[in-house]
Structures are given as C-alpha cells and as structure tokens.
Amino acid sequence: MNTLQLTGRRLIFPHVKSVVLEPFTPASPQAGEVVVETACTLLSTGTETIVYNRKFDADTHWDKWVRYPFLPGYAAAGRVLATGRDVTQFKPGDRVAWRGGHASHAVLGVGDLYLVPDQVKLDEAVWFALAKIAGHGVRAARLVLGDTIAVIGAGPIGQMAIRWALINGATKVVSVDVAEPRLRLAASAGALVVRSTADEAGPAIEKALGGRPRVVIDSTGNALVLKAALGWVAMEGTVVLLGDTGSPGSQTLTGDVVTRGLTLVGAHDSRDSKEWNNAIAADRFLACVSRGRFPLAGLNTHHFPPEQCKAAYTLATEDRVNPMGLLFDWNFTGGTVQ
Which domains are assigned to the chain? Predict the structure, then answer.
C-alpha cells in the first residue's frame, strides 16, 4: 500500500470564543478507507456559533457534548486523493461530499463518502449536511399533499426546510424572518414571505395562506419562539422543533397543546433511521440539485481562506442578517503520494 506524506491543516476551538488554524498529520488509508482532499467546508452558523460562544445552559446535552479543545464543522466536499486496499467504489480524482470537520484532508470509510454528480458544483454539494438535518424536521411533520406550512427562521436550516417542504407536497410554504436578505432567498425558492418577529407574525401568516398552517417548523433555536408557534398553528396541527436551543428550560408549553389537540415533535441530526440517514439524504439531495429541483443560487454569501477563521466566526456571531453560506476554501493544498 502506498504511504501518504501529507501536512494537513484544520480548525480547532482551543477554548471558548477562540479559533485557530493548526497543522496536523492525516493518517494513511487502511483497507476500505479513502483519503480526501477538501475543496470547501460549510460553517454551520447555528451549531458552530453556539459551541464557539458556549451559548448553552449547564446540564443540557450541549454541555455534555462540548469539550475544549473542540474540532468544529460537519459539512465538507472535495476530491479523492488516495485509496486503501480493497476500495473499488472510488478512485483518485472523484468528486465527493462527506460529513467532516473544517480540515484540508480527512480519512474516511467508503460508506461515509458520497459521489457528487457532474452537474453539481462542490460548493453546492457541501450543503447536503444541512439539508439532511432539515429533512429530519420535514419528515417529522408527516406532510401530506396539499399541506400548508410556516417555517420560522430563514437561516441555513430554514432555507433547507423550505425547499424540502415544497418538493414533498406542500402547496404553500411561508417563511417568517425579520431579515430581508434571508427572505429574498426564501422567496427565490418558491416560498411566500412574512417579514416579522415570530410573536407578531400570526395574522400575516393567515393572510398569506388563507388560514392557519397545519404545520409550523421552528428552525431558529430560539427558546422563546415555541410559544408563538403553538399559538398560530392550525387546530390539531403539528409544531416541529428543528432548531436545537441551548436553553431548553426556557421553552414553555401553552394551553393550546391540550385545548386544540396539537402535536409537538422534535427533530435532531442524530435521529437517523433506515429511511433517513446521511447516505439517503445525500442521494436525494444531490439528485434534486442536479435536476434543478432544489435551488441553491445565492445561498453561498461569504468565502474565507482558513487563515481568516477568526473573522468568519466573528461575522457568524455578530451579523444574523446578511451571512448565509459561509464557506472555508481549502485550495487543494495536497501532498506527495509515494
């Protein structure tokens, strides 16, 4: 087996509100493994800023998960650099996407890599990870043909939820947000838009849909939004908590759950099943993008070299209006195969 001699780079949070680019040595691929060279990684402006700023309560699952130093990121795309023994599914040069951190290289099993169709750009393919997460929420809603849906929050996860809902039978989808740039991106995908805070959006949503939505998806991760969502979903409707708040103790139920027979359901990236997991999500997402059914134009708003990681996380933390897709471009630095 060939031995790789690589000098890799990766981002790491040494401690709270700190990010650095550090060197590391990628492993050589073993049997059934592949070395990939990263083209781009997508910064999750929800999960990663919560971890970066340690913006979560004690004794939550966040508190149990996050330990510094922490390796951030979970959405990557690039090319196969080398393969280990017994790998027949991939060859050097293949364009692939994977769930991985912000790093120039990674070593993965063949089951963790997903071929990117020729029609899909790598900076589009990298969105599959967020699309997979949003898919959990849309599936939890148990959509039926003709449904009406409101998605609170038009950030990256909200944008993905809107697109899945329209693909999967919703007649009308309303996007609720206070940020005009985000609403424009939602509208470009076919959503109706309501520029409003969640607690004041009810009348405008009813006007746009001709009634209350049967499903409300909260993609914000803001604990205070739940009360509003329960208030303006339809009788016997469903509210999906897709945004994962760092302060679950601040989420409170209302009497609507009992008096109007509502269903409240959570959705999380970790809740994989044989019907919905990384492999299935990548297949469906990449197929839809390649056929023009999942529009992504305009979603990549900022590109950073990894050396500017501090600026990227500062922007993601401080500006919740203009950034959408924040990409780290790794420039195929590569190494020598001997």
Answer: 4-127+299-337 (3.90.180.10), 130-266 (3.40.50.720)
